[in-house]
User: Fold these one by one.
Assistant:
Number 1:
Amino acid sequence: MALSSTELRDRLRTFSKCVCDGARLMVGQGDYEAYAAHIRKTHADQEPMSEREFFRNRENARFGVGNRSGFRCC
Amino acid sequence: MSAVTKHGPWALVGALGAAALAIVATTRGETVNALWVVVAAVCIYLIAYRYYSLFISSKVMRLDDSRPTPAHVHNDGLDYVPTNRNVLFGHHFAAIAGAGPLVGPVLAAQMGYLPGLLWILAGVVLAGAVQDFMVLFISMRRDGRSLGELIRAELGTIPGVIALFGTFMIMVILLAVLAMIVVKALAESPWGTFTVAATIPIAMLMGLYARYIRPGKVGEVSIIGFVLLMLAIVYGGNVAADPYWGPFFTYTGTQLCWLLIGYGFIASILPVWLLLAPRDYLSTFLKIGTIIGLALGIAYVAPHMQMPAVTKFVDGTGPVWAGSLFPFLFITIACGAVSGFHALISSGTTPKLIDRESDARFIGYGGMLMESFVAVMALVSASVIEPGIYFTMNAPAGLVGTTPETAAAAVTKLDPAFAITSEQIAQTAKDVGEHSIISRAGGAPTLAVGMAHIISSAIGGKTMMAFWYHFAILFEALFILTAVDAGTRAGRFMLQDLLGLVSPRFKDTSAWAPSILATALCVGAWGYFLYQGVTDPLGGIYTLWPLFGISNQMLAAVALTLATVVIFKMKRERYAFVTIIPTAWLCLCTLTAGWQKIFSADPKIGFLSHADRFSAAIAENKVLAPAKTMADMHKIVFNDRIDAALAVLFVGLVLAIAAFGIMACVKAYRADRWTALESGGPAAVPAE
């Protein structure tokens, strides 16, 4: 099956996005774009957090106060 | 599709796996190529995934993609987000993989590689992966709630509190053991100590960068950190050789123990963005990278297993840890075969991110198979080095002394098959850039030598061996320190929950005084066991690792009991054997091991008989080796009794949860309808 160069480029782009998203999620950082899109769609009255606020929010959710499951495994 | 095209390729995979396992298991008198071990493992994983996990998901759980997952129901773009299953697999795997699967198999190699390999493979397929998958499923059907909450809801309040307390205790032992591994790896090693110490300023620099200069640029900051880290390893050799800085970074085990306790306390009250989060980036990415690198290295180098398939130490006389194959092999290798800790991860962030129910199979069952593969690689790494070197590194100092000559003589005496010369020992130490490799128990140094052996055969040759050795030490120390830091924080919150049951004032996690107090108590608890282990003349690992193994398997038994109860409540009891078999096996192992640790008449195994021996000597005013003073003698007796009490506690905990579990199963069996507490309820389940 021959792939055209655009198709190949798209697949590579999807793949590298998947790797980057995966690497970010490994350290607790979710997808900001998906979050912002979700807020705009479902809570049109709210302004989504900025990227910086989102980063800090996720950092606290992973390690911060009250988190009982933030520890790594043995 | 005909049965031949559907099952034919899988039959071939199965046949290949069986053939590889047969080669590994039956070859005697010549060494086996490690690739056969890898092939056998991968084939078994593939078959188990294709058939057994499918059976569990379709018959036991009846996963249903038309049921919305918590990620869809509660989607907030933050904690609950439908996530691509490959991305989520990476997240889940990074969360469950840690030091455990790397250390247990290394210690188990004293019995030869075959017993460990068979337990890793059978354990993961029938117990470990089942546990992870079941807990993930149970939590996913209940809005992603945590293990403690699940046990409270399905089994009752008292079992819930017992489980919370058990989780706290396993956490304490785990942190002590992990810290112990770091101490063992860094004691008298200025190169190692320097590189690990360098991670603190490097991480802080990264933290400031990611906080103020380029917020959120995780990739960028990780690359900067990685480069600095590599420089620290490269120049660590010069630091160690420096007449001033070399001795400055040379510490004894006891000094390192105090440094770690102080570090644990300070690190866990610093803001997370400064130290914990940035070091977590480094440790996570380094961990994944090293695992991939090790896999490629083994595939490329195809080393031969030097350790015999089975050594004479299956009878329980081995120098690394005491006790016979049953039950102690099954608690020595916990992670990699079955790990109770995963139940906490599977009921943590992962279930809140699952897009479709059927993804749980790949993430839960598949993720654990991957972790098991890491354990197999660790076993390979420990088995490709000379057995003589392995025993030199892992036997307690009391047995092998402190010089290459005494160690060579002692190890050769253990078994002539492991004969080794003092020159070989000295040369190995020189190759890896250390003063000494004698009696460096704990798994990490042995694994590092094995990894250095494999990777340097692929890249850099002998001249790079010292680099790879210190790279491997750093990689383990890095994520262990992250675990110590994050674990102390999590332990502090757990402790505040527990103390809150007595005095509600403790529950306030934002108040200053209870937080400091709970942190100090938590650090004090693991610090106590760490200190006990570091000053233990038997080498600490010898005493602490079995306790850790028992506590971890105990938590797995608790999680599997919960899974059994849920299966009964779902009226799927005809398939309950899926969890009853591993639960029963784990109960058998932990209870037998616990019993022997308490009551065995052999002072090498039983804490109480060991204490008796020493108190009898105290009564006669004699000092027994390895104690040097009367105070040492009293300390040994006291520590033995504490350890025995802990074992009693663990045994009691398993028995209590098992009893509550059986009662809940009977009640659910008698009920004429579905009694599980899923969100959405049974109405959403299609008829069979």
Number 2:
Amino acid sequence: MKIVTRQVTDKPLTVTIEYPELTESVKGLVKRIEKLDVSFSASSDDKQMRIALSDVYYLENVDRKVFLYTKGDVFRLDSSMADIEKAAEDSDLVRISRTCIMNTMHLTGIRQLKNSHLEAELDNGEKLIVSRKYLRDIKRRF
Amino acid sequence: MPVRKILKDTCILAALMILAVFTCSIIWSGLTAEITLVLSLFLLALIITVVNFLFDEFLSLSILVSYILKYFVFTGIVMLFGFIAGWFFPSNFWMAFIYVGIVLALAFAIDAFRVNRDIGYINEHIRSNKSQSQNRADLT
């Protein structure tokens, strides 16, 4: 399989699959890509917008309210953490603690701190605490 | 890892065999002292597993503090359970500290090793994914 990527400005993200024959593996590939096309309905300052999964850095449950963090913004979500996990099944989202779901797409590394807590670093420099219990779930994503 | 899966499946199968054999024994000959002991151990294991789950789910402590806290809590549970089940004489209840200590020391060593191995695995894959996408970007 040959993978070709190219930057095309002024167009939304488009995935084109060329195949000699529509086999089960091609259908599987399409299904997997479709699963990646998840977005969340979020609000910020009374404005509703859709946030693509690739823009999500992490989601956090604070006082029973779910917040979605992108590279530099924070949005409020109406869904519960369980709903999010269900919607983003087989995606790059993974639970890292009881209150936090992280997008492994933006993960740059995990390290153990001196007090043996685990810390995940994202590509925007943000650091999140990882519960040891969920480390194996993160491992399964790679 | 096949070795781990075989060991895990062996333990589950052994537990099922014990339960099946003992169920038949209870039906034929009622509760004997041996059967009561094994069922008590199953009950104790269930209580400890539930408490351990709650610990991991609701407390975010460092690995060492978490194991020290678990040591005292689990020892307390074993002692209380042991007194109720009549396992300990008043003079040897401190043996619970040794039993729990041995099990937790092993669990701590395995946990610490596994965490380090998993962190290494994840970081290695992040590095290799990054270099792969870098190569793809260079090609296009």
